[in-house]
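Narrative summary of target 7.
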Amino acid sequence: MAVFETHQGTSPLILAFPHTGTDVPAAIWERLNDNGRILADTDWHIERLYDGLLPNVTTLRATFHRYVIDANRDPAGVSLYPGQNTTGLVPETDFDGKPIWKDGQAPTEADIADRLASFHAPYHAALAAEIERIKAIHGVAIVYDCHSIRSLIPFLFEGRLPDFNVGTDMGRTCAREIERVACEVCANAEGYTSVLNGRFKGGWTTRHYGRPETGVHAIQMELAQISHLATEAPPFAYDEDKAVRLRVHLKDILHRIAALAATLPH
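Modeled conformation, tokenized:
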């Protein structure tokens, strides 16, 4: 199976989709239990939500599911949120804390090493190559990491998640101007809620690549799935009416960030 799909553009933005893939190799599928086979923690339909919002934008999408290996986790296995419930490089549970593997079938250290080499590393090699290509064109590159998650997950956080969750690792991963325009659009979006560096501060992709001093900026957008799905339960159907409303604001964010690129030092 192809590990990722790439569309090369010339915009200073790169849209990364590490969690929309649903491909699971047969040998791994056989080890998932019935709960794991629901693939509930997929970032459902996010590539569709962003499609066509920004001309000539580069996109990179992992095709493999995060239960195979999570492309947005540190390859060394270091937790993104020490002391808080989360899922790891190869998850043992879903976001509700329920097991996803059959008894005795959880991935071994050898399995993890193989999946790092076969899935995680190629995806990030492709992302690094696109960053360098875009940086060669513009002098800067901006990675916009696209995510979504259910709005109610007591195992991971209390209460209802805001609709827009902007993550910049407390301002470390991108120029303040990028953070500011994203938050302005979110704050002014009527009928939506938003937060900066709340429960989600940016995953490994954002933290690893976001080095503003080198001309590479990264920002994560975690959307509450209730903002664009009919329901946050199977079959996780796309809600066209909700999506149309949301896409207006996402388009504004992308265009405003892209316009900033020419003003950033390089």
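The chain has a mean pLDDT of 96.
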